[in-house]
Design brief:
seven-stranded mixed beta sheet, Rossmann fold, 26% helix, EC 4.3.3.6, single chain, 12 strands, hydrolase, 201 residues, glutaminase activity, 6 helices, three-stranded mixed beta sheet, pyridoxal phosphate
Length: 201
């Protein structure tokens, strides 16, 4: 069965996500309009700059259609800036930045910046079998609160310094978010997990 995944293509690392999704067995398209959105089985919100994407969602008249589609159950996966956009509450963002409320969680933007801007580590991710996932964090958010019904998929491992234990991957129903960027490592397991969950639906 063909699974058609749209990648929100207003800004950010759209191409890397399309490559990973196609390698994971999906057909991909870009999403810039409400018509594009109506034609996909799931959507990926890429890494980039969440405040810029928030503004562009307004400019492209896509904020309300996307929020409504997510509320109606459109499966979604967001990495980094995408995680921020999927949240129900964002700390340390611009006052005019909006988020989509697809996952009941509070996310702190640029949270690791107080420790170190960018870093890599190996993580165990719930539901991802085999070797740990190489997680690349680039001015990444972390999750400070999850609501009932939100499953924590990964935390920064013990021994990683002051940020150990921090929640960096979550799932609520068919919607997933990671603080890190699996689209840049060539490890397809996170994208495959998302594509498979859309296919099973
Ligand atoms: N710091 C960015 C933001 O606030 C996210 C960075 C990223 O996506 N790599 O949106």
């Amino acid at each position: 069965m063909t699974v058609r995944i749209g990648v929100l293509a207003l800004q950010g690392d759209v191409r890397e996500h399309r490559h990973a999704l196609e390698a994971a067995g999906a057909v991909t398209t870009t999403v810039r309009t409400a018509e594009d959105l109506a034609a996909v089985d799931g959507i990926v919100i890429p890494g980039g700059e969440s405040t810029t994407m928030s503004r562009l969602l307004g400019v492209f008249d896509l904020f309300d259609p996307l929020r409504d589609a997510l509320a109606a159950g459109l499966p979604a996966y967001g990495s980094c800036a995408g995680m921020i956009l999927l949240a129900s509450e964002v700390l340390d963002t611009r006052p005019d930045a909006r988020c989509l409320g697809a996952i009941d969680m509070t996310v702190r933007r640029n949270a690791f910046g107080r420790q170190v801007d960018s870093f890599e580590t190996d993580l165990a991710v719930e539901g991802v079998d085999g070797a740990p996932v190489r997680a690349v964090f680039i001015r990444a958010p972390w999750v400070e609160r999850v609501g009932e019904g939100v499953e924590v998929l990964a935390r920064v491992p013990a021994g990683a310094g002051p940020t150990a234990g921090t929640v960096v991957a979550v799932r609520q129903g068919v919607t997933m978010a990671t603080s890190f960027h699996p689209e840049v490592t060539g490890d397809l397991r996170i994208h495959r997990r998302f594509v498979d969950s859309v296919r099973r639906r």
